Structures are given as C-alpha cells and as structure tokens.
Amino acid sequence: MHNQPQYFHPQAEAALADQELRANFRGAMDYLRDKRKTAFDDADEESAIRDRSEAIRQRCLSKLPELLEQLETNCIANGIRVHWAENAEQANTIFTDIIQSHGGTLAVKGKSMVSEEIELNAAMAKEGITCLESDMGEYIVQLGRETPSHIIMPAIHKNKRQVADLFAEHVPGFEHTLDVDTLIQTGRRVLREKYRTADVGVSGVNFAVAETGTLCLVENEGNGRMCTTVPEVHIAITGIEKVVEFLADVPPLFSALTRSATGQMITTYFNMISGPRKDDELDGPKEVHLVLLDNGRSQAFADEELRKTLQCIRCGACMNHCPVYTRIGGHAYGTVYPGPIGKIISPHLMGLDATQDLPTASSLCGACGEVCPVRIPIPELLQRLRHEAKQEPNPGALPLRGQKAAASNTEAFIWRSFALATRQPALYRTMTWCATRLRRLIPSKLGPWTRCRTAPRPAAKTLRELMAERNK
C-alpha cells in the first residue's frame, strides 16, 4: 500500500470507515499515552528534561555546518567512510555502489526512517539487491507490502490476528496461532538465519556525535546490534540534522527520547559505533560507511523559524497525542513521516505542491507541542506552512518547493472583499443587516462540515430585536 499526500482527504475518509483500524489505533494510543504519563510522573522533572533537550538541539543546530565538518573529520579518523547525498537518488546510488563493489545481493536492515524516506528497498530491488527488514514491526509491514504507519512502531495498525494471517501466508511451516510470544519467536527465527548470510547490514542513526565521530543507535530488539556487527559491511544513513556537538549531549536526549517514545526509562540496547573492526577484535564489520542525507533539510535550516522543525528526535509522542492521527493512522497521510511532525517535515522533503493539505489536517489543539520532548512549536509551524501554501514567500526567505500551491483566486477575492467591508463602517453595517435577514436561505446541509457536526439553528429573532422588546 502506497498512499500519496495529494489524496489525503479520500485516504482519511477510508481510514475513518475502517472500524478495525480505528480500534487498533485507539487501544495502542491509549496504552502509549499512559506509558508516557507514568514515565514523566514528576511535572517539574519533565519540564527540566524538555528545557535541557531543547537547548541542546538548538545549540547544535545553530552550529550545524561546523559540526558536520567536525563529524566527518572524526569519523574518517576512526576509519568510517563518509558520503554526502543531496537527495534520495544520490543516496541510493551510494548504497548501490557500496553493495555492488562487494558483490552483495542481500542486505539486512535495522529500523531506519531515513531509509524509508529514500525508498531504499525499492531502489535496491531494481539493482537485484534484496533488503530484508529485521525490526519486527518493519518485517511485518514488509510482508504485507505496506509502509510503516508510525515512526517508532511500524506495525501498530495491525492486531495479532492480522499478523498471524500474514505469517500463515508468507512463512513456510507456520501454524496459525494468536499467541503473541509464538508470533514474535516465529519472526525472529526467520530473521536470525538471514544475519548469517547477509552481505551488508544497514542501520539508521539516532545521534551522531561530532566530538568523537560516534554513531549512536537506540533499539529494543537487538536486531540493530546484529545488523551492525554480523555482516562484513555496515552502512549507516542519517539526516544531517541528527548531529550533536558533544558526547555529553547524548544522555539527556536519550532520556527524553525513550520516555517520550515508549515510556521506558532506558531502552534494552544502546549501541555506540566508532569504527570498523580492529585487527585484535573478534567481531564487528570490516567496513563502516556513513551516508549524510540533506533532501530538503538545508531549506528548513536556512529559515530561523522553520529550523525548529529539525530539532525532532523522532520519538513519535506528537502522533500518540494527536486527535487526527489517532483516528486515521499513519497511512492516510501518504508520507514517510505522518502525524503532526510529518505535517511540518514533509513539505521540506516533498514540496508544498504535494503536501498542501497536510498543514490543514490539524485541529491546532496544541497537544503535540505540549508533549514534544524538545519543545518544537508544532502548532505555530503549521500555521506558518498554511500561510506558505497560499502566499508568496516572506522577503528574504528561501521559498519552499511548491510555495503558493494552495492559492485560490476565489478565496483571495473573498478575503479582500471582507477586508474592504470591515474598513467601511457603513458597508459593514449593511452587510451584517443583510446577513441576519437572509440567514434562512443558508442550506440546512453544508457538505462535509455537517457530516460530523450539527449546524446551529438560527435564532427566531436577532439580539437587537430581543433587546428592543425587553426595553419596551
């Protein structure tokens, strides 16, 4: 299933009509909210963690160009080969060249949203290279030929019956069962054999430390550690915004990430990769490559307000608390990054012409901003993008691709007319007089608005008429 953001509205309607999907998300979102609430049971501690995490991300982003150069220098000194990719096409070419140079045909992958962003699996398939997902959630959606519906829990939209049906269809010898432990063990048994035969291991990066040239990887299943140590070649890919200045910056961000994402004080595995296997070491890859991807991030970085988008540490908390996401799920958005964070990231990656409906798919309730561990002002950025979708760029601003894609001559005429009317007292009084007397001509059904809402019944008399009667 590959939805597209241009068709957000029909995709959302289809999701709302899927009662099983809505039940799956309702239970999962309630669970994750409760877990986060338990992890942050002290409001003062939560505020302090968020303040510090925000300060770290803003400091690192303010020095991003220098930190990227420092990261490259220290990674190379550690034996890591660094590659730069301006867009998805360049990144996929880098992967192809590395894998083919080793005669590889199988890559086993840890969970990486950036690899989803560049559609790595499809690109490698065209070159005769199989990319097998090793994260259990990613493995499940790969079997179903779907894309992840959540950035932390890719298969959160499926229940155990749906997973069992997938295994029965694709895993030889599987006996249908709804026992969760059996389902997990079945997937792990299949994947464990692949680690031994894979030519290349692929991973994402949660934090890249400029000070030491270290790649940090957060995970719970151990598959990330297997992907980065068993195959002879390890390729890590990350967006350029994931760099942090000091190793000491990682623990506060790590704490904020795990508590916000899954309600854990600490994850099961925290991997720190600083180079390939040394001569006196028994395990680890012989080669480590790092691919640094731009793909629209420089555009966001160039604008001081939109730069805050890049503070994201990919915890998914904003999704779990969003009233829109929790009802329609991730696939309805048609983007790699769904939910509130996706609405502000995707326009930079894909252009406003493709994503113009996403910034308006929000009630602006503010829940996403209230739970963000790095305090990204998501509601304010959504309003900014709504403006960008309809107006010319601000003076001196670097325009988004597709700027003004949602502009409407009719809407512009209506607002100009309204502005003119409100500036002229006599015209304004005439307009309100007409509106109160012609209100009965308004249709009882107002299209999509009244499908979920009941329009208020007009008062029998105007307020002025009631006041006049009262004063008689």
From TrEMBL:
4Fe-4S ferredoxin-type domain segment(s): 302-331
For this UniProt record, give its keywords in alphabetical order, as a comma-separated list.
4Fe-4S, Electron transport, Iron, Iron-sulfur, Metal-binding, Repeat, Transport
Give the matching InterPro entries: 4Fe4S_Fe-S-bd, 4Fe4S_Fe_S_CS, FTHF_cligase-like_sf, Helical_ferredxn, LUD_dom, LutB/LldF, LutB_C, NagB/RpiA_transferase-like
What is this protein called in UniProt? LutB/LldF family L-lactate oxidation iron-sulfur protein
The reply on keyword Amino-acid biosynthesis is: no
Taxonomic source organism = Oceanimonas smirnovii
Keyword set includes RNA-binding: no
